[in-house]
Design brief:
nine-stranded antiparallel β-sheet, 4 helices
């Protein structure tokens, strides 16, 4: 499959949160291990007006990667046990990122099962901390550019006029009114959330 170039990532954060759905994230981990997952769920975060964003109060040592060029990987450690993976958006100097919340595993499943030790394939990557463990993504990948050969994104399936659901973001306590979560309707690989208002289905055209 074709590797996506830097131009693909140079989009507004909310736009990229939608365009990433259906794309394939690849991690060439070495030693014959190659992980691939199709992105089925994302969340957008912006410094301006979004208290849940790490960069809401400005640049720090932790969030400085968010101010870098679009297409950079921003990985951080949280809850004392999870790595979460984001893709930097916006122009350089403006903090924004898309959290990858869930993927459908499509390659490297044997290694993913070893990393996660779960029974059902559907449970391998249905959460942002689960998918990084499955794909062996750690702080060592923080700041990597997605135009390289270690981590990158492929075109994946040619998804056009796909139904995309929008909802409020999960697991946050600030700026909870923003409906900046996007996910593929009907995908069994989407992360689980508490019951709430019905999601809004939006018909959008994704880039080929």
């Amino acid at each position: 499959m074709e590797k996506l170039g830097e131009d693909f990532f140079a989009k507004p954060t909310l736009t990229l949160a939608e365009f990433l759905l259906g794309k394939v994230f690849v991690h060439n981990a070495g030693d014959g291990r190659c992980y691939k997952g199709r992105i089925v769920e994302t969340e957008a975060y912006l410094a301006e007006g979004d208290e849940a964003c790490h960069a809401f109060r400005g640049r720090t040592k932790r969030n400085k990667v968010m101010y870098g060029p679009p297409g950079t990987l921003y990985v951080y450690f949280t809850y004392g046990c999870h790595y979460l993976m984001n893709i930097v958006t916006e122009r350089e100097g403006v903090a924004g990122a898309v959290l990858i919340r869930a993927m459908e595993p499509i390659a490297g499943l044997a290694h993913m099962n070893k990393n996660r030790n779960v029974v059902r394939t559907v449970d391998l990557m249905n959460g942002p901390g689960k998918l990084t463990r499955a794909m062996d993504i750690t702080l060592a990948h923080n700041g990597m550019n997605l135009s390289g050969d270690t981590v990158f994104i492929e075109e994946g399936e040619n998804v056009t006029q796909n139904l995309i659901c929008s909802s409020k973001r999960i697991g946050i306590t600030k700026s909870t009114d923003l409906s900046w979560r996007r996910y593929v309707a009907g995908s069994p690989f989407v992360s689980k959330s508490k019951p709430g208002p019905p999601p809004v289905k939006r018909k959008v055209m994704l880039e080929s």
